[in-house]
What does this fold into?
Amino acid sequence: MSQIAELPRARRSVITGIGVITPSGLEIAPFWDNVINGISAAAPITRFDASRLPVRIAAEVKGFNLSNYLPDVKEKRLDRTIQYAVAAAACALKDSGVSLASLDADRAGVVEGTTISGAASVLKSYSSFISDKTYRSLHPYNIVAGYCGEGSSSISLYLGIQGPVMTYCSGCASGNDAIGYGAKMVQSDELDVVIAGGSDEIVEMLHVGFCKLRSMSEHNDNPQEAMRPFDKKRDGFVLGEGAAFMVIEELSHAQARGAKIYAEIIGHGRTAEAHHPTDPHPEGLGYKSALKRAFRHARVLPEEIDYINAHGSATPKNDPIETLAIKEVFGSHARRLAISATKAITGHLMGASGAVEAVITALAVKNQYIPPTINLTDPDEGCDLDYVKVARRYPIRGAVNLNAGFGGRYSCLIMRQFGDS
It folds into this structure.
């Protein structure tokens, strides 16, 4: 089997560290084991009283305590979104083995993706102010934590990163875009090391909002089988929460210190449809454009891709449109692609989804093993590609991670198996 041609660019971006705080696991090994075995994290909601709601299930992070990761951080000051982000970033840095002290201070940075970071603090502040109507009711840190960039700021503060630090918000494509942007910063010689990923938490108001949108599965009696990507009986996603971050490092920098390498990031494409606030364009314009942009950046052909981690949101409109876009971009090669939709396992983690699925894609490339698309028993009309139902070993040269976000935003990340040649 032919290999993807080496990139002619001088600087290459590789993944050398991974950290996960997810409903499917708080460490890489159990997380990957649950993903490969198709064990859904969906369960009845415990975070708040959902008894009167049409959707009473979610994928919540369990057993997390920030003090296990950063003992000196005052946990109560931070929203869960920020706690998850800081912990996952710290884990990724530890896993990479990179020493920030050995770097020039401005050669390491942070790129975080999120959709609702700060929402919990804003709601808390607003409730306090409405009930009291005086400025004394507001806690100063709730104001600081209430802006969406506090996650990346906290990572910078607690890990001591002094280079560019930013937060990316492109709906549920945020995490994927953050990683893609971080990889480009390395390739363009702006940075040598980037900690990039995404984080979000389940907030009661958000959950209620998704209930109103009718975008979540209402199979409350069987949570683990509720989300059914590409299936005729699909009725929406299961909301989740958590974070995933990775250390993206310039190749020669990683090799000089003997770092392990999970995969190489070779392409990123992002686009918007300007079509509808929530619905995808019926012709899949956003998916197709993001894929083509990523191929141009990566300088590869569609035939050099073997695996796709699909957005697979299990919503009535998304799945057949995503499939249509894949068919049109990949042509006859689409029938030879292995595809999986892992949100049914982890839950839909909003701004963290792209980051979590990028981690899954990197692990699939590293291990040459494809995770399953669970709960797919009767594919819908038009959903007729190879959606891997049982995890299997598979030779992966190149892999794609696809994500979509509200507002018609689409993101495609391309990785390949790393080779020294």
Summary: The mean pLDDT is 91. The chain is about 30% helix and 20% strand. The CA atoms of residues 397 and 417 lie 6 Å apart.
